Amino acid sequence: MIKVSNLTKEFMQGQEATQVLKGVDFTIKEGEFVAIMGPSGSGKSTLLQLLGGLDVPTAGEIEIDGKPLHQMKEKERTIFRRQKLGFVFQNYQLLPTLTVEENVAFPLHADGKWTSEHSQAVNDLIDSVGLKGLNRKRVNLLSGGQQQRVAIARALVHNPTVLLADEPTGNLDRAKAEEILALLSTFHRKDKQTVVMVTHDIFAAGFADRIILFRDGVIDQVISREDRDYAKYLANFLA
After folding, report:
1. DSSP 226
2. Which residues contact 220 (CB under 8 A, 6 or more apart)?
3. Among 49, 53, 147, 231, which is 20 to 30 Å from 164 by CA?
4. R_g of the chain, CA atoms, integer Å
5. ABC transporter domain: which residues (predicted)?
6. Are 192 and 117 in contact (CB under 8 A)?
7. In what order do the strands lie in the sheet with 85-89?
8. Is 113 helix (H, G, I), strand (E, B) or coil?
9. 3-class secondary-structure state, position 38
10. In whole angstroms, what is the distance from residue 182 CA to residue 160 CA?
């Protein structure tokens, strides 16, 4: 589903180039749940922006569902993002004056795909993320955990090929975080949804099939959740 080859990203600081990603290679299979972890400044958030087409690499290749994202012009990336990718952000990024239903339906309106036939599908999706009966409530009146559920429903409403999550539990307490992670895991298992999640939380990473550990712009280690020593590896890596 995702193939990254020799991916490099540099940022200019004055006259000096800072290399954030240094020739990264990996693949993610269709239906896989992958967590990307690493210390602050390791390049994990930059990687997610590149996978989402929000930025372009300095060098290297990104293919998603067989499409060369690295070769697309800005307009092409925008269309690809709207049609193929779903985003869940740490700060929810909802429209606060709109209702739950209006926020969830927004991607369909933005892409010109909305018809009255979508109304039931939107309501069913709202029910499936545990917000039944809150369709007409403004999102700024919801708790943080409820707002993140709205964000997940919005990200899934157009049946994306890949769901990208950037610290989706960063603003939540442990109990609410576990609810959100369980919800992502349910969609991953039930709908074979491909999920790529950036997180600094070992607990959150434990919901993934694989964990890609970044350090200083390169992949330090890849750990499978089935590996009985994965907790030890993580502790050593983050020490």
Report:
1. T
2. 38, 213, 214, 237
3. 231
4. 18
5. 2-238
6. no
7. 85-89, 162-166, 194-198, 33-37, 210-215, 218-224
8. coil
9. coil
10. 19
Please list, in sequence order, all residues whose beta carbon lies within 8 angstroms of the beta carbon of residue 221, skipping any fewer than 6 positions away. 213, 233, 237
Beta-carbon neighbour count of residue 133 at 10 Å?
Answer: 9
- Hey, what amino acid is at 233? Y
Smallest CA-to-CA distance from 237 within 39, 40, 47 is with 39
What's the rounded Cα separation, in Å, for the pair 198 and 90? 10
Using CA atoms, how far apart are residues 171 and 192, in angstroms rounded to an integer?
27
**pTM for the model:** 0.90
- Reading the block at residue 158, the tokens are 């157009």
* Angle (nearest 5°) at CA 221 between 203 and 170: 30
Please give the CATH topology (third level) of the domain spanning 32-54+73-238: Rossmann fold (3.40.50)
Unique residue bearing structure tokens 């049609």: 83
Q: Which two tokens stand for residue 14?
A: 């004055």
CA distances from 42 to 20, 37, 200, 220 (A): 7, 9, 11, 10
How many angstroms separate the CA atoms of 116 and 121, rounded?
10
Residue count (the chain): 239
Handedness of CA 95, 75, 20, 31 (dihedral sign): positive
Q: With left for phi above 0 and alpha for psi between -120 and 50, is residue 28 left, alpha or beta?
A: beta
